[in-house]
Amino acid sequence: LLPRTERLALRRQATGSASSPLALNRRDTQHPRTSPSHNAAEKSSLDQVNEPLRVRGGGPAARVGLHREDTMLVLKEYFTNAHLLPITNRNEPLQDPAKKRGMLGSVKWGGLLAALVSYAWILLAWPGGELKLKGVAVPAARRCLAIVSLVSVLWATEAVPLHITSLMVPLLTVVSGALLPPGGDAAYSASSAAKEICGEFFNPTILLFLAGFSIGAVLEKQKLSKMLAGAVLRPFGNRPDVLLLGMMLLGAFMSMWISNIPSSVLCTSLAQPILAQLPPGDPFAKALLLGIAFSNNIGGMTTPIASPQNVIAFGWCDQVGAGLTFGSWLAFCLPFCLTLVLFVWGLLRWRYPPQLRTIRFDLGREQGQMTGAQMVTLGVTAGTVLAWSFWKPLGLEETFGSMGIVGLVPVIIFFGLGLLDRNDFHNSLNWSVLILIGGGMALGLVMQRSFLLEIVSLVIQSSLSGASLWTFMLAFAVFMALVANFVSSTVAAIIVLPVVAEVG
C-alpha cells in the first residue's frame, strides 16, 4: 500500500480538493463526476478503460478509497512517475520488486563453490591416483566419480536449477572422456560418446514419463479426473484420513501391475479434485501427495513384473537355483507391502493431520452424458494401461521393443485429435522434470560404463569378507539405497546383483 500521506493526497484528489499536491491542472476543483465543466469526451474515453490498476508494492487502487473514474484521472498525472501501473489481466499478479533478481541473483554460490571444489579435488588431488578394477587402473572411473560428486552436490544444494544440473551430465561426460564403449577395450571418440550419451538422455523411459504426463493432462482437461476420483474413492466415505488410505491402496494396487511412474501420475490426477477442496495451508495436501508417492513405490515391490529391478532380481534367483516363483514372491511381498502401506498411512495421518473433519466428496455425481472426447480419452487411457499391464503375455515387446514406445500412442492420439493442444504441450508435460530424469539416466550409463559402480561394489565385498550373511545383506542394502537416490535403481541392480549372486 502507499504511505499514509500519499493515500490522503489521493483521497483529496478524488474529492476534488485544489490543495492536493496531486491535483490535476484544471480550472475547477469539483469532483469529476459532478463538475459541469468536465470534458465529456475525456470522461467517455476514460470510462472505456476497463483495466484494473495496482499500486506498486500494494493491492488494487480501490483499497485506498478511489473509484475507477478517480483512479484514471490520477493516472494522467501520476503515470509518468510509475507509481500506478495498469495491468491487462484482472487475475494477473503484479510482480513483487523484491523478488526481481538480476543476472546470477538466483545462484547459490556456496553450493556451487562446494561442487566445483569437489570436482577439481577428485580430478587433480585424489589420493592413491587412479581407481583400479582387479588391479587395473581405470581413469574413466575417477572422471566419472568427479562428475557424480559435482552433480550430486548441485542437486542436493540446488545451487542451480535441478534440470540445468542434469544438462551438465552429457556435456562433462563427453568432454572428460568418462564414457567407455561396451567392454571398455578402447576409448570412445567424442562423436561416438556424444551420440550414445544423448541417446540415453532421451531413452524410452523418458517416453514413458511423457505418456504418463499426457494421460494426466488429458484426464484433467476433459474433466474426467473428478469422475474417476468419485467412482474409485467414493466407497471410502468423506473422512480425509480414510480417503488417504483409499488413495494409497489404489496406488499400491496399480503399481503392482504397471510401472510406478504412470501409476503415480494417474493417482495424482485423481487427487486433484480433492486437493482443490482443501483450504490454503492444509497439511493434508502434503499427506495426500506423499502418500501417493510412497504407496506407489511400495506397490512396486509386490510382484516380479512391477519394476525392472524386480525382473533382474527374479532372473538372478533363477540362475543361482533359488527356486523363487511368481507365487512365492507375491506370497512373501504382499503381506509385507500391505503392512508397510498401513504404517506409512498412520505416520502421515499423525504427522499431517487434516484441518477438515469431512470433505464434500460429490465428485462426478453431476456428470451428465459422456462426450465423444471423453469416451476417446477413457478408451485410449484404458488401452494403454492394459498394454503396460500385459506387456509380455500380449507379445508387445517383440513389436514395440519398449513400453516407452507404446506410450507414444496416447501422446500422438491426444495431440493429433485435438484433445490436447500446443499450450498443453508446452505447459502440462513438465519438461524440466523430463530433463532431470534424463540426466539421471545418462549418469547411470556413465557409472556403469566407467566401471565405477563395479569398483565400489567390489570394495564393499572385500571389506566384508568373513562377515555374516546378515551383515553382508545389510551393507549392500544400504549401498543400494544410497546409489538409487542418484541413479536409476535399475542400473544399480544390474551392477550390484551379479556381485551379490556371486558372493551368495
Automatic annotation (TrEMBL):
Main subcellular location: membrane
Region (Disordered): 11-62
Domain Citrate transporter-like: 153-503
Transmembrane parts of this sequence: 109-128, 140-157, 164-181, 201-219, 240-258, 329-350, 371-391, 403-420, 429-447, 467-500
Secretion signal span: none
Annotated localization: Membrane
GO-annotated cellular components: plasma membrane
Record-level GO BP terms: phosphate ion transport; polyphosphate metabolic process
Keyword Transmembrane helix annotated: yes
Bilayer topology term: Multi-pass membrane protein
Keywords on record: Membrane, Transmembrane, Transmembrane helix, Transport
Any Pfam family: CitMHS
InterPro entries: Cit_transptr-like_dom (IPR004680)
GO molecular function: phosphate transmembrane transporter activity
Designated name of the protein: Citrate transporter-like domain-containing protein
Native species: Cryptomonas curvata
